[in-house]
## 1
Amino acid sequence: MKRKNLTSDERKAATVEAVIALAASSNPADITTAQIGSYMDVTQGALFRHFPSKQEIWTAVMDWTANQLLARIDKVESDNPLDELEAMFVAHVDFVVTHPGIPPILFGELQRRGKTPAKALLQKLMAEYGVRLSTKLTRAKSAGLIACDTDIPAAAIMFLGIIQGLVMQSMMTGNSSMMREMSTRLFNIYLGGIGAKM
């Protein structure tokens, strides 16, 4: 990456992008500030002027991830809750395909022991995501578009579980492009599971 004069905010954003790019091909736990600096063509000292610690870099990555994913989901609007659910599913999958370094970072953060600011942000992301998802499922249920006895919390977990399973499959095979094709087929099975009335 060619060095150029950047504002503090631009440098922080570039650092987040560098970490996500490196995590696509490296174990996030093994990424060092030296690697990040090398990728950005800056010294570690320059990096630490913007992020006093490595943990603050991970917190910034998690904050960016939460904001970007939720922003994509919040753009989903339709008079039909089932169409909204599908658009939300597709937006989530597309986000992961576009940023393949994100899943390893999230899974790695969840494995850390104890509480960290990054893990707290991840938990907040999942809570806010869950509220949006449950709201769409409840709307679909109220409109009679899914089975009247649908367990909303379980349906929400199942929705996320399908995406997480797709992510794990793509990580094992090293083929993230298959996620888009498989997502349509899996979402149709999901609709069948919640008794969707098309």
Note: Residues 117-142 form the longest helix (26 residues).
## 2
Amino acid sequence: MDERSLKQLLGRVKSGRVALDEAVRTLKDLPFADLGFATLDTHRTLRQGFPEVVFGGTKTTAHCVKLVEALASRGQSALVTRVQPEKGAALKKAFPRGTWHEVARLFELPSKRRPRGGGHVVAVCAGTSDLPILEEAAVTAEAFGARVDRVVDVGVAGLHRLLKRRALLQQADCVVAVAGMEGALASVVGGLVAAPVVAVPTSIGYGANLAGLTTLLSMMTACTPNVSVVNIDNGFGAGFYAALVARRR
């Protein structure tokens, strides 16, 4: 249930169009639903504006299906992250209206009232190897109502590629900058725009990259003060945060 739905229900009770007992039945599973294997936060949209998101990487296919069913039956959008191909195919079969975003490793089943007017996010990545994380961020932000433009393979080894897209970057309400190696892209983007930049270090790199730790530390010590950093390979977290920022600007 979201704020709009709650206001509509209370308005119907006030006007006498909905009986008090019926309203109680509607609200009885708030603020959570006990599914046995999971305690689903059905109140999260009301508190935060977005429904609970399912981390699918270590859950069984059956659990993912039941969680999506539980969200959809309550009129909420469902987003499942880190979905392997077999699990994505099973979710698509169970919910034909949904979308399996293979590169992003996300399954999305939107509600009938998909969020709109969520601002403008530009998601930019240094290399094509970073594309899965960029797509995870971009699809997440889109699922929560943001308009997203993607800028791919514009790392600092060829800075002219990024500078050609400067006008687009400067239009954004929030920028997501995804990079591996030494992570310099985040600082450079931060110096080009007035908007907040969410930096995503990826585990792409050799030896002393330390599976993304070097990138993370580099981004955390960025000179440009408009850069904040999420965890290694956390495209979902970046997209979620960017959508929150963009809709308030």
Note: The mean pLDDT is 91.
## 3
Amino acid sequence: MTDRRLRTDEYPLRRILLVWLVVSILLIATAAQNIFRGQFPDPDDVLRLVQVRDLLAGQEWFDLKQHRIDPTGSVPMHWSRLVDLPLVLIIGGLSPLLGQTMAEQVGVILVPLLAMLATMLFVGRMAWRLFDVETAGLACLVVGFLPLLVFQFQPLRIDHHGWQICAVVAAMWAIAGRDTWRGGALAGFAMSAGVTISLELIPVAAIFAAVLGLRWLRDRNSRFGLVGFLQMLALGLAGLFLLTRGVGDLALYCDAITLPHIGFFLIVALGATTLALAPPLPWFAIVVGLGVSGAAGLAFFGAGSPGCLRTPFGELDPLVYDYWYVNVLEGRPLWDQSALVYPQLIQIAAGFATGLHLCLQARDWKRGWWTDYLLVFGGTILLGLLVWRSMAFASVLATVPLGYLLQRGLHRLRSTESAGAKVGIVAVLLLVLLPSAPVVAGQKLASPVGNSAIKGPLATSSCDLFSSAAKLSALEAGTIFAPLDIGPALIQRSHHAVVATGHHRAEDAMRDVIAGYMAAPDETLDIIRKHDARYVVICTDILEPNLYADRGGEGNFSSLLVKGRAPNWLEPVVLDTPGTFKVWRVVDTR
């Protein structure tokens, strides 16, 4: 096989850019209505924009608090400034030219697409190195057919998940390099950025470390791959911590990188470096040595942050856990998901099966490469089964083998003369690329039309949340007692604050909101007084307030509001909004 580094005329950059442009246009067209209405895919995207606005308005870089959530206490967000950075650069850079509103519009459309472009560049580079330019372009095209990737890269999806996906595929590309230390170091830096963004990537970093460790056991000359990975992971985490957190807040949070985390990775890196520089050792001694390094790092972490040996959500208030956490389905395992997601597993299975076929057919370095690829791929599949959102990492690793499968299918389609064979090839390709199409079509045909009594997500609500929330600015600024899911839109579109949103560091305020909506009105008023809230706002046709109404006691606060029977200490506020968007002013009559 000719070294592709010597065939620069074949580099697929133009094809990757063309595919990205086509997929981007399709995503923008598909999301046009949401873009026009300013309706973000998820409340986290809304709050991300609020954070960026506050930063551009003068909030300090190291001040991660959201001062309009539970303003009596102010909530320190667990999000990283790394994700804010591209939004700040684009919105801040374009605001003098276009005005802030238009600059924000450009930013929230462009940033997810840029994350997709970065991801495609890594995917295309890997596919080109393994196959050819055509397969590289098709592998990038496959990105537009994988639902979990499309969701994370769609316009307005400005939260951190797209950049996490990019970090995973960047690390996969990096360990394909021929310089073992450099490849490991680049992968370690990619993982340090991903872990800084969210601790959700720590298991993925462990998978990469395990694969690089197996390389060491297979070939001692590959030992510096793991060393470079661990060194740059530790140093990258330390540097990014200083860049994004500084030294003003050294609190031991369990949901973001802290000094004990960094200490753990430094100890493990030091242990691996020592073993790599030692004289040749038998494989079991290497395994024991790495295990001892890991145990020492874990002991340091446990001593420095003992409360974080459990999961960040393990100690949630029972009310918050039952009524918020278990309803965040993307963070739950596969078996808690709707059956509608199951067809997506066809794509993952097809990608893994194709990768296995390529591994069995490969020789020399390619056999080792595909073995490593499948180990990482398989690890992310297992992780995705436990946390469905993480199946996006498996999805991005499915792109390269699926690109090859698509290329071979198209080649067979062009070369065969049998009509039956052509039909069969097209059917298989459609099944792999669009496995959910029959399910979605059947759901649309079976769903009732015009049934406004159905209580569902914000996307299907008639309360026109984002436009309605903007009209709240006509009222004097104050704190709003509102369900968790609509809180981000209220603070993004108006000058008001809210008691809580669905972000677990505001656990006490979240509990007060949930308990308040499920309590008797007099008890709710006590909670409202506690947070000095001046208004109550709900959308009556979304799931959250109706869940509280159904599960609370008879005559609970939420059920009264949904039925239009507000207590006498609430005064209706008339705004030009749909009837399902209800606003009251608190008038304490006691």
Note: The longest strand covers residues 533-539.
